[in-house]
Structures are given as structure tokens and as C-alpha cells.
Amino acid sequence: MLKYTLRRLLGMIPMLLLISIVVFSLAMFMPGDPLGGEIDPTNSDPEYIEEMREKLGYNDPIHVQYWTWVTNFVQGDFGKSTQYKVQVSELVKSRMLNTLFLGISSIVITYIFAFAMGMTAGRKAYSKLDHFIGGLNYFGLAVPNYIAGVVIIYFFSFKLGWIPFGGSHEIGLQPGTLEYWISRFHHVLAPAIVLGALSTASYTQFLRNDIIESSRKDFVRTARAKGTSESKIYNSHILRNSVIPLITFLGFDIVTIVNGAVITEAIFTYPGIGTLFLNSVNNRDYSVLMTLTMFFSLLVLIGNLVADLLYGIVDPRIRID
């Protein structure tokens, strides 16, 4: 497995190089001027703008600009944000913690609901309870996360006042205190439910169908013939086999959560990298935009690798060389 992991990691290098070329090209072809966020908006002197363009290297040939950017990127220099006037590394780091907190919370919600409803629907197949859970799942699959977010904000924030509709914590709280963490959980609850509960639907149906299929196999009939209790059959035999494919989805969840957070964070005005990404697009903050796009691409590659490794870990029958 170590050789396989190293081989996959080395294979990411040319892939990331190709992605960097695409990302840089798309940024250069975007309409607008990156200097719009760097210079003083009140100063529109053409000579001053041209001086800044020369200073920042925007007059250099495209291949020179790309080489400068990619070499700095590899060395950990992601440039300076034209909107926030700080280094991109510091900006992304400050927002990353919020997105990780949101992502972990939503994953926990996803798997708790998926295991509970999937096991119940699988054991009570074709019953009224199974049909009710299936109806909830299909409703969750049909509702986009931005619609669910708007509805939750409208009813639970504006009408009932149960949850906040923006930010990651109350202003003025001391970080690390109990009140601070309670406020953090309070603010992340709604976006985490939107991300996690809607993702639960597909996992629940997958687990339910796999449990039904496994319950009809020979080893289950043999266990019943030996007098094994139904609870032990489902918990020790069926669930152990059915949960294997579900666990491997954890690698893809890393990517899905970040991608979904782009829209969800914007709806709830949650200060994470999703909101930062949309702001960088709107304000043509190319340094932040290219850094986050490369980060998302790296997450996709890592997520695929984690999924493959988990497959080999949870299922000993699969050999990864």
C-alpha cells in the first residue's frame, strides 16, 4: 500500500501542473482588470495605472507571468490579495478553520442520519416506515441546498429567531471560552444541517438497498438456520458488509463538502473559503481565486486517493499494490 500511495502522489505532480496552466489561463482571460482592487479607486491617472501595471508584472509576456506565479506558488508565496490587502496565505488560513468546522459538523450529521435511517429502512423493508424514510430521501435529493438554506433562514431566523443568519460567532466573545464555542456551534448548526441532511438522502438509500440485498445472500440464510438472532445477523453480518462501500465515500465527502460550502456559506454569509472564493470572483482578486482553485483541485485528487485507500483498509479482500 505504501508503494501504491507514493505512486499516486507522484502521479499528482503532472496533473497539478496541467491544472495550474488551465487555472492561470482562465484567470488571464477573465474580463476586467486586476488592478481595480489594488490601486486607489479615486486615482484614475493613466500614468499611475500604467506604472502599477509595470510594477506588478502585468505587462510581461504570458509565459513569464505564469512562470513567476507557479514558482512562487510552489515556494509557498501565493501573492497578495488586491481586495483585502493581506497575503493570500494568511487570508486563506483564517477562513479555512471556519470551513473545516462546518465540513466536519456536516459530515457527522450526514453519517449519523444515514446510518440510523438506512439501517431502519433496510430492516423494515417495504413497510410504512420504509416508505416514509424513502419519501424524505427523495425530497432531500430534489431540494437544492440554496433553496433549503433560504427557507431555513426565513423561518428559523427571521420568523422564529432560533438561529443566527450570518457570521461564525457573536461579536465580542473571547476565543477559547465556553460562550465562544457555544456561539460557534450555534452559528454553524444551520449551514451544517443544510450540507449534511441533504447529503444524507443518497447515503441512506444506498445503505438501505445494500442491506436488503445482503439479507438475501447465502451466508445470512446459513446464520438464520443456525439459530442466530436477527439483531446479531444485522449488526454483525449484514451491516459489516453493507457499510464498506459507505465508508469509502468519506474520501469523496471531503470534496463534496467544500464544493457545497461555496453556495451554502454564501447563503448564510458564513466566513469560510466558499464565501472568500465568490468574493474573489466578483472582485477579480486573481491571487485568491487561483490559489483557491488550485486548493479545490488538490482536494479532488486527495479525496480520490483517500477513497481508494479506505477501500483497501475496510475490505481485506481488496489488495492495493
Question: What do these coordinates show?
Answer:
The chain is an all-alpha fold. The chain folds into two domains: 2-74, no CATH class; 93-283, MetI-like (MetI-like fold, Orthogonal Bundle). The protein has helices spanning 2-29, 46-56, 62-74, 88-123, 128-142, 145-159, 178-214, 218-225, 230-268, 273-282, 286-314. Helix 9 (230-268) runs parallel beside helix 10 and helix 10 (273-282) runs antiparallel to helix 11. It is globular, with a radius of gyration of 24 Å. The relative contact order is 0.14. Keywords: Cell membrane, Membrane, Transmembrane, Transmembrane helix, Transport. Its main location: membrane.
Approximately how much helix is present in the residues? over 70%
Main β-sheet, in a few words? none
Mean of the pLDDT scores? Answer: 80
What is the fold named in CATH at topology level of the largest domain?
MetI-like fold
* Structural class by sheet pairing and helices: mainly alpha
Top-tier CATH class of the largest domain: Mainly Alpha
Q: Which architecture of the largest domain per CATH?
A: Orthogonal Bundle
Backbone shape? globular
Supply the number of structural domains: 2
Unreliable stretches (pLDDT < 50, length at least 5) are: none
Evaluate the radius of gyration. Answer: 24 Å
